[in-house]
Write the structure tokens for this entry.
Amino acid sequence: MLVLKNITFEDFGNKINYDYATQNDSNKYFNAADPFYSKYQMDVSSVPESILVIPFLSNILPIAWFAGFNVEVNDVDSNFFECVELVKAEFQKQFPNYELKGRLKAKKKTENNINNTNTAMLFSGGVDAYATYIRTHEKTPDLVTILGADIEINDKEQWTSFTDFIESETLLKANAKQYIETNVRTFYTYQVELLLKDIGWWGKIQHGLSLIGSLAPISYIKGYKNIYIASSYTEQIDIAWGSTPQIDEKITWAGVSVHHDGYELKRQDKVDLITQFSSDKKTNFKLRVCYSELRNSFNCSKCEKCYRTILGLILNGKNPNHYGFDVNEQVYKNMFELLNYGGASRGMQYFWWELMEKAKSTNTVFIFKDKHLESIQLDRIRHGELHQILEDKINKPKSSWSRIKFKARNKFSGLYTIYKKRWADIAEAIT
């Protein structure tokens, strides 16, 4: 059992603190030194308790389901109470080899209703987010960005860079911005990751319900009846993932509708949409796709995620340097070198397959310097060389080494932090 004992406020009502107690075997999953909280840019202390509890439950419940303990609260929104069992059932479909047990228990269930019809969307500044923004921009949604999800709470430099980008981007001037700070990735211990046979708790389980649920208190104040979250994948990619239409669109409270947007679009379709919108509006805007630890500019322009976005822009005849990247004609050589190292997944392979198909069909390619030499490199992509590199990696025998490394890294987290910082300093000095 985990019991939420009390909800309190700090910072003039902007910060919600959750006082909860764990019992027996559930203790090991929670970081006692960093209890869960959620902080907003406005006073949320007048919001009903049954709504205030939602950010907490959106992060605690998945742990309870997989670990097998119950969660008890005093009061919860009646819509949300009903929806969490539907969400749990969707996770059970994705993970048929696991038995999800834990349940939500509430002393009281309160019916709430949001009467306004305002719109909000979760906004990260990446390809998925911009595609959803383009598809919803006529609704002028409020843009909600969360510190503690992709950017660590203590990484003030990256967060300031990110918020400066959002505030200064001309395209986004008409949209109100909301920023939320919440320790969604540090309130639990590494034992939560080990609930899965293959690590990846944030992506595979937590992030959809966590991000959406974080909006509950401000949705009540701002009157958000519709909330949009951009899709990461499409139905063609059959992997377990924590944000799908089947999961996200079952989430509700106070009559709120959640829309999982762009699921019918491949990632390259989204890049195509962005470049077409950019041409139609005669404006360029930066895409922030990179959160690499080695990043010392807007995007690092040399990680796998950067390269696939860069190539997608090139194949649309666009100069990636106009969209927040820093590359030249050496991009193909560097791209092949990177993909020859590291791991691979079916999801990653699918994204590069899309690029291979786009390269086969496009008649418009951006040329940096030498059309002949760059066309030779593009032919390697058209003929599936990158796709085969990833296929070979995926088919290599799996080992338990990644799980062993994960345990060691977390048991000796202090040493790993020093190592990571030192490596980032060396990489920055080299570049």
